[in-house]
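Let us begin with a simple case.
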Amino acid sequence: MLQRVKNFKNFIIVLLPLIVLQLSCAQDAKPSEAYVFKNGNPNGIGKWYMGREIAHVMGFQGIDWLERTARETEENTSKLINNMNIKTGDTIADIGAGSGFHVFKMAPLAKNGLVYAVDIQEQMLKAMEARIYRDDVKNVSLIMGNEKSVNLPENSVDKLLMVDVYHEFNDPKEMMASIEKALRADGKIYLIEYRAEDSAVPIKKVHKMSEAQAVKEFEAAGFVLEENMDNLPWQHCMVFVKKR
């Protein structure tokens, strides 16, 4: 009888840690409470963050649209680059760089610095790699990101650009946490999004963002709106800095 009691005690000692581990794993497996899953716009993914449905990512098949000749006229990309006030020694990150449309405009301005071109699609990175090789660009570094991280060194970036990409982040809370780590204390985020407040902007609703929505999400991530330059034809040019 005594031996049975000892065996039972040993069984409990072994079993309890396993139960705790299983409960812990089950909690980790739960979807983040930050997100809500429900049907919505056919151009969305059915995942919502702070009242906004996340849009489908534009695939590499859209490279021609990114490089369209009308883009300068429609978006005034030259003014956008001027808004960033790029210095020669700046370290800049273009998140969701795509074909590198903005990357290769910024690189000559930061000639003594570095431009990180971050994307999650291998085809986009290969397109930029071909351009780097063709034009012998020395200060562009290609980074393969993922849905939860920009994969940049901590405290490495002076200016961070996101052009019509933030609204497509599958996991915006996690992405903004990784961006916060990569951005230097006095760094700036330039968030470019099609204006949801303007029905005349010829872009699908789920691919637009309002200033109010952007401020709500970025404040939750530890940032404040420094200014909205509001000088682009279709897009907001919102500048965010870390809360001090």
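The second case is a distinct protein. As before, the sequence precedes its structure tokens.
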Amino acid sequence: MDGLFARLSPYAPYTLAALRVMAGLLFLAHGTQKLFGFPPSNGPAPELLSLRGIGGVIEIVTGALIALGLFTRPAAFLASGQMAVAYFLFHAPRGFFPAVNGGDAAILFCFVFLYLVTAGPGALSLDGRRPRV
């Protein structure tokens, strides 16, 4: 079994990139749903300077940056923090269990983005093409 995993190891940067791109695009979609109603949502668009409005802006900006792999670590740090705050402000008061309080996506986003802060963007990122300073 170790031989199989050893043969898969060279693909780790590419699977990390796939995780980064998909998490970024899903996060971006949450922001566009909040601010622009696309994909369609049940509620009205929030005021831009409300907590939900600012959250939507953060989701759009950081989601796009993460998907592109541009400034991945700072964008993922901000997105992870936003999801932690969102969980404790909006989901945790509705109950202890994330599957019941609707916070399972917030927790998952929080920890995926926290992982990206430490792991970096992986392969195929714009960060990898920027000159090192």
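DSSP finds six helices and no strands in the chain. The two ends are 41 Å apart (CA to CA).
Keep these points in mind for the review questions at the end of the chapter.
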